[in-house]
Amino acid sequence: MIRNAFQLFRQHWKLTLATIIVLLIVGVLLVVVSATVWEYTNSTEFCGTTCHTMPPEYAAYKQSPHARVPCVDCHLGQESFLEAFPRKAKEIRHVYYALSKDYEIPIYVRSLRPARETCERCHNPAKFSADSLKKIVHYRPDPENTPREIFLTLKTGGGRRSEGLGRGIHWHIESEVYYLSEDDLHQKIPYVK
Question: Predicted confidence band at 160 (pLDDT cuts at 50, 70, 90)?
Answer without folding.
Answer: confident
